[in-house]
């Protein structure tokens, strides 16, 4: 079970990562990246972030590129939340394919 502190840090990181990705994806036409969920470990040292990417065909490639450039993303995150957190957590990004799964179930039910 997550503590109140973990939940607040989850929401803070999700909000700030969403804004970072919004600014970065404005440079690329036709790609939308949203942060669907963030889970922070109890020691606040690691943040597992789940990304939903549209179009979904580019999803795995985009997550691979994001994980390759995680240091610059962590640096930008640190500039934004450095005053609120003592340590900026390490970031790991995963592809959230739950929307594709829901769409597939809808197609099957119809």
TrEMBL record:
Gene Ontology biological-process annotations: rRNA processing
Pfam families in alphabetical order: RBFA
Recorded GO MF terms: ribosomal small subunit binding
GO CC list: cytosol
Extent of the signal sequence: none
NCBIfam families: rbfA
Identification of the protein by name: Ribosome-binding factor A
Organism: bioreactor metagenome
Protein's gene: rbfA_22
């Amino acid at each position: 079970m997550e503590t109140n502190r973990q939940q607040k840090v989850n929401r803070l990181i999700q909000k700030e990562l969403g804004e970072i990705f919004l600014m970065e994806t404005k440079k690329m036409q036709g790609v939308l990246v949203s942060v669907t969920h963030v889970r922070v470990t109890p020691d606040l040292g690691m943040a597992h972030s789940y990304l939903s990417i549209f179009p979904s065909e580019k999803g795995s490639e985009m997550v691979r590129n994001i994980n390759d450039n995680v240091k610059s993303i962590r640096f930008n995150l640190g500039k934004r939340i450095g005053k609120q957190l003592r340590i900026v957590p390490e970031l790991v990004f995963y592809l959230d394919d739950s929307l594709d799964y829901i769409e597939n179930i809808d197609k099957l039910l119809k």
